Amino acid sequence: MSEEVKAPGAGKRPYDGTRRRLKAEATRRAVLEAARELFVQQGYTATTIADIATRAGVASDTVYAAVGRKPVLLRELVETSLSGSDHAVPAEQRDYVQQIRAAPEAYEKLTTYARAVTQIQQRLAPVFLALRDAATTDHDCAALWVEISERRARNMRDLAADLRTTGQLRADLSDDEVADIIWSMNAAEYYVLLVHQRGWEPTRFTQWLTDAWSRTLLTPPS
């Protein structure tokens, strides 16, 4: 009589962590959305981890496990608002950046970027203003504010250099000046002034950015 000896674990279905991963992602989104609502509504300083946990319907320990402390929560909100996804995406990997670099004409590059700025600020502006206010009293938030501002300035210098390759930028403007002009007008504060306070439609804001940048930065057509 022969006996068949099975290896340990033979016949068992392999472990599938998909359900657990999806649950963790859903929890993370709920925590971030709760933090976003509270930071915008009542301010960063006044919001506690317990408040966020209650709004998200989880325990406080789950907030820490899913995302982290308050400064990490705010950073994640800024990064995901910039990226337009559940996780941070480096600027060079974002679709609109690749479209800008592929466009042959400066006007097309500026139009694409103006459209992207409007879409980003619809997500980012309320969060970024909460960060600005928190930066006045919180060291971590102040450091994040400076980091994001300087990163945005570096990205605009890259954009200016890319625009220069078209041969259509004004010769009397340096790349640094071009970058500073775009940097000042893609800020959350600028969007809030015109869209939130003056009641402009986002489409009008996009058209204004495109027109203003084109008239200011590009060589007039002959």
UniProtKB/TrEMBL annotation:
Record's keyword terms, sorted? DNA-binding, Transcription, Transcription regulation
Coiled coil (residue ranges): none
Looking at the record, the residues that make up the HTH tetR-type domain are 25-85
Tell me if Signal is a UniProt keyword of this record: no
- Gene3D superfamilies cross-referenced by the UniProt entry: Homeodomain-like, Tetracycline Repressor, domain 2
- Residue ranges for the region (Disordered) are 1-20
Q: Which residues bind DNA?
A: 48-67
List the protein's name: TetR/AcrR family transcriptional regulator
Q: Which organism is it from?
A: Nonomuraea roseola
